[in-house]
From TrEMBL:
Keywords: DNA-directed RNA polymerase, Mitochondrion, Nucleotidyltransferase, Transcription, Transferase. This is DNA-directed RNA polymerase. One of its GO terms (biological process) is mitochondrial transcription. Its EC number is 2.7.7.6. It comes from Mirabilis jalapa (Garden four-o'clock). One of its GO terms (cellular component) is mitochondrial DNA-directed RNA polymerase complex.
């Protein structure tokens, strides 16, 4: 995330680049401290602020903010707070604190929030145009195509209990699931990049004859080669190209190219995939006009989505 935003401060806090003191950083401890300061100013009730800040630890903060990219809502955040703080604050107060947490997220990490919304909305546009979402990296392309599932009921005979039971099966329909697509797009966008980086690190280690193992989400090697892993990790990220090119390629693949393929040459957006790879930028106003001109026909209930893209 810090790489896509070119956020040096966030890169340091997430250990993408070394910190000035050479120590391993913990981004959730940093967020916890910042959040407590924010809540003290934001919450009108000083007693509520004091109770929350005294009981807010790294575990709770991580549970609140890590799932943000998966579409975590204020309601689910309030439920998490209720689970941990129900002995101290009421259910209503949990919602108050949850709303404040989201306000903190949007103000302190505005760039991250904007990037998440952009990628999600591109996924939504693709789904609304009845197309899958494509994610590209150097070695492979991932296709995301969520369909709305319908409930199908079947009856089976339970020999043990000697009676019939109804079982519900969820069967995919032919209709694309816009909501699930929107929520999942950014998470899958990031996960694919992570998978690509992991594959390249393993490849580079094997090329030098270094043993490499995985334990959960960690790479393990022998002392002789362990220092190569972070070097290869950084090298792979640099080889991915400019962050803006990665984002523009995603927009081009899922919005511009599918429309261009169906247009006469005189109406085609004047940019190619090769132009994107060379670093050409998709002009903001041109993209807005393009989206409005070729927006999905059944958009009446979702006009607000396109206002977000503006």
């Amino acid at each position: 995330m810090s790489y896509l935003l070119l956020d040096e401060f966030l890169a340091e806090k997430t250990n993408l680049i070394p910190s000035l003191d050479g120590q391993i950083q913990d981004v959730y401890s940093y967020i916890s401290n910042e959040l407590k300061s924010f809540l003290k100013d934001e919450l009108v009730d000083n007693n509520l602020s004091s109770i929350v800040c005294n009981n807010l630890d790294r575990k709770i903060v991580k549970k609140i903010f890590m799932p943000m990219i998966y579409g975590k809502t204020v309601m689910s955040t309030a439920s998490d707070l209720k689970e941990h703080l129900s002995h101290y604050i009421t259910h209503k107060e949990c919602f108050t604190v949850a709303s404040a947490c989201f306000k903190f997220w949007r103000s302190r990490f505005n760039g991250m929030e904007s990037l998440i919304r952009l990628i999600r909305n591109i996924g939504w546009v693709a789904s609304a145009k009845n197309r899958p979402v494509f994610y590209k990296v150097q070695n492979f392309t991932t296709v995301q195509d969520y369909m709305i599932t319908r409930a199908i009921y079947i009856w089976v005979y339970d020999r043990l209990r000697k009676k019939r039971r109804r079982i519900t099966l969820r069967v995919p329909s032919a209709q694309r699931d816009r909501r699930k697509t929107e929520i999942s797009t950014f998470a899958n966008f990031i996960h694919q990049k992570d998978a690509h980086i992991a594959m390249e690190v393993v490849k580079k280690m094997l090329e030098i004859g270094a043993p490499i193992y995985t334990v959960h989400e960690n790479f393990v090697s022998t002392p002789e080669f362990c220092y190569e892993i972070p070097n290869f990790y950084t090298e792979t990220i640099c080889e991915m190209g400019y962050p803006l090119t990665i984002i523009n390629e995603f927009i081009y693949t899922n919005v511009i190219k599918p429309i261009n393929d169906k247009l006469p040459l005189s109406h085609v957006y004047p940019i190619t995939e090769e132009d994107i790879q060379r670093g050409m930028v998709i002009h903001e106003q041109y993209l807005k006009d393009y989206l409005y001109k070729y927006k999905p026909a059944n958009l009446s209930a979702h006009e607000e989505r396109f206002r977000i893209l503006n």
